[in-house]
Amino acid sequence: MQEAPVVLLGYDLLEWQGQDLRERPLQERRELLVRLVAQINHPALRLSPSIEFEHWEDLAKLRETARDQGSEGLMLKRLASAYQVGRKRGDWWKWKVDPLVIDAVMIYAQKGHGRRSNLYTDYTFAVRDGEQLIPFTKAYSGLTDKEIAQVDNWIRRNSWRNSDRYGP
């Protein structure tokens, strides 16, 4: 706990006292969450910050600090919105900062699971250190079905398969 303290950061309250709150407005769910966190009053239970702004320019400046906060942008939600799952549209909008760019090499591709078990959907990337390739990340989300099909096609056309030595 000293080296890596853990907190529970509350963003929303979906159920309370056995009652499903997902169809209730965010503003109502948030007010309940604020009261609950205050009532519990424990340092490991914290509220996510709410951002109030008057001008889009102010919000845009805050968005530009997202990386400093370990975030990919801002999640904007209408106070009247119900809880939503999946890709957010309409009442919820993920306003991301522009992605960072790096020169990397895809060194490995794995087939996915379920309906994507016949497609290469999981990728491992490396960066060059002199003549050596150093793996640094795996990627397995963020592409549309069409993009996955395009990457899968490219992998099948361009990969050297010697699974005893390298894998796909």
Note the topology.
Blueprint: E1 8-10, E2 15-16, E3 19-20, H1 26-40, E4 45-47, H2 56-63, E5 73-77, E6 92-96, E7 105-111, E8 120-129, E9 132-139, H3 145-158
Parallel strand pairs: 1-4
Antiparallel strand pairs: 2-3, 5-6, 7-8, 8-9
**What count of structural domains?**
2
Quote the average pLDDT: 88
The main sheet comes to:
3 strands, antiparallel
Radius of gyration: 22 Å
**DSSP strand (E) fraction?**
25-35%
Low-confidence residue ranges: none
Query: Can you say what the CATH homologous superfamily of the largest domain is?
Result: DNA ligase/mRNA capping enzyme
Please state how the strands of the largest beta sheet are arranged side by side: 7-8-9
Secondary structure tally: strands? 9
Shape: elongated
Q: Distance between the terminal alpha carbons, to the nearest Å?
A: 41 Å
CATH topology of the largest domain: D-amino Acid Aminotransferase, Chain A, domain 1
What CATH architecture of the largest domain would you give?
Answer: 2-Layer Sandwich
Highest CATH level, the class of the largest domain: Alpha Beta
**Would you list the SSEs in sequence order as H and E?**
EEEHEHEEEEEH
Structural class: alpha+beta
